[in-house]
UniProtKB/TrEMBL annotation:
Protein name: Aminopeptidase
Keyword Coiled coil: no
GO BP of this protein: homocysteine catabolic process; proteolysis; response to toxic substance
Family recorded in the similarity comment: Belongs to the peptidase C1 family.
Active site: 69, 366, 388
Organism whose genome encodes this protein: Bifidobacterium gallicum DSM 20093 = LMG 11596
GO cellular component: cytoplasm
Keywords: Aminopeptidase, Hydrolase, Protease, Thiol protease
Molecular function (Gene Ontology), one example: cysteine-type aminopeptidase activity
Pfam family, one: Peptidase_C1_2
Amino acid sequence: MELTKQDLAAMSAAYKKAEAQHIAEIAVKANGINASSEREVVSVTDNPFVFSIDVDDEAVSNQQQSGRCWMYSCLNWMRHKVEKDLKLPKGQFQLSQNYNFFFDKLEKANLFMKSIIDCADSDINDRRVTFLMQTPQQDGGDFDPIVALVEKYGVMPLNIMPDTAVTKNTAELNAVLNKMLRQDALALRALVHERASEEKLNEARLTFLNEIYRVLAVSMGEPPEKFDFEYRDKDNNYHVDRNLTPLEFYKKYVGIKLEDYVGVMNLPTEQTPYGKLYTIDMTGEIIGSKRYLHYVNVPMDVFKAAAIEQLKAGEPVWFGCDVTQDADFTKGILSCNLYDYEKMFGIKWTMDKGERFVTYQALPTHAMLIAGVDMDADGKPIRWKIENSWGTEAHNKEVGHQGYFIMDDKWFDEYMFEIGVRKEFLPQEYQQVLETEPEVMPYWSPFNPEP
């Protein structure tokens, strides 16, 4: 299997005959791969920002340098209802991502410690222990985790607990927390090996969590237990509601029945047949919550129909996709026809969606909101309106259409993996699946939002 000089000579000779790639070489070396391969026909002109069903035009938020897209998109979904119900001016209201992020970090630390204790008798090089030690916690998440956080802790307006320098760029915080948790893990493993009592283990866990809480409070501020909600509506009328807890605010001003919403995925692989419920081992960060990470796997036509029905009902749709594929962030276009790598390099792509997933080529990497869809005369979707959480400008360049993107329907088929929708929009056969015992996917699954 050695790569010989003869092999290299043959490759060089073949390239000398590839005249089309010689032309491409000039462009790619000067401009880069994507800029050189982008098709001219895929443009803003060919993808007008107009949709036959359009439910949301709120000003986009900005997650800054953090991995909180799953949280932003879900809170923006809730924010949409608050803005609509209270007739708030566009762009003047958001829910505090910092507030829920605080408890997300604390709950993840608690889950990590429990998992470390559960597998403490395993060798330090055991795959499960290695998985935990590699990334004790991080920013990522999913639909069920943010729902569980809201159900336990509620929500609050952004102005009550705004972002800090740390939450706008979380790399430093994650480095500190992970260093602490790895150290805590060694101490907890030692206690287990000494056959410490459950009381002793719990005492140590709470001591370590107290330190985590302190770091979070210094970095993010301590979450207020009560606050006043003041606002002016579109008619400039003043309103105030005093001394609310975050849960009281959620129940009174958001009021979405979260138990009616479920995670739905489209994962066409041999290992994940349709019509089954799935969860992932070592997830479910809020210990004791009835809400755990789970998805019902459905064919794309069912998946797509559920999203459209929720849009028709006037609600945006939370979703997870692979935004790293075939995307032009400046133009705000997600399109399978965007780049012609095959012609430029003289290669051929042959993997389907399932094959891309199992080889880690395409994974759920980002969460956003579906804010609308454009349908043809036969009721088939053409393109989708997407609300992102990257702000409206980055590196002195506009991001999409004031932060919104256009997703063509083919891209939807190939790179959309999950949505959070009202279960009533699923056919009865899939609603019944939600009552079954889930199959547990391994913690190393590419679908795991907490690697």
